[in-house]
Specification:
145 residues, Collagenase (Catalytic Domain), 4-stranded mixed sheet, globular
Length: 145
């Protein structure tokens, strides 16, 4: 018997997410395609200031960011994690990159999931792979909606 994963969205700062059930299905599929078992994902949408506080407190970084991902499971266990996303950064990045807020939001949502699957983005080569994977899951999601 397989237990279906839990994927929840918590809004401490409001932002609309279109087609939530399809997004959850795309996320579950992402973990499958990446060879990971998913137990639980919590997405928490916050302000720039709140994410800056989290960045300072837990990572000792003193800068704004769009996302912070916290893995909550041990190696070999089904993946559990909390992903904090700055709504303010999403809106600003969408303007800067010339895309819709919804596209930037989905990109960052998939980005956090990919981190939990073990993908990094520290080096130029890792960033390139991460962007290709984000694009892949964006296309997959958009083709299903």
């Amino acid at each position: 018997m397989t237990i279906s994963p839990t994927i929840r969205f918590h809004f401490l700062k409001k932002i609309g997410i279109n087609h939530r059930q399809k997004l959850k299905a795309t996320l579950a599929g992402l973990f499958k395609k990446e060879g990971k078992r998913l137990a639980e994902l919590q997405y928490i949408f916050v302000s720039d200031d709140r994410l800056l506080e989290i960045n300072r407190q837990f990572l000792q970084h003193d800068d704004y960011t769009d996302i912070i991902t916290f893995p909550l499971s041990s190696s070999g266990e089904p993946v559990s994690g909390e992903i904090y996303i700055s709504v303010d950064r999403i809106r600003e990045n969408a303007r800067e990159f010339g895309c819709t807020i919804q596209t930037e939001l989905l990109r960052v949502i998939f980005h956090g999931a990919l981190h939990l699957c073990g993908h990094n983005d520290k080096t130029a080569a890792e960033k390139k792979i991460m962007r290709q994977l984000e694009d892949k899951y964006l296309r997959l999601h958009q083709s299903s909606t």
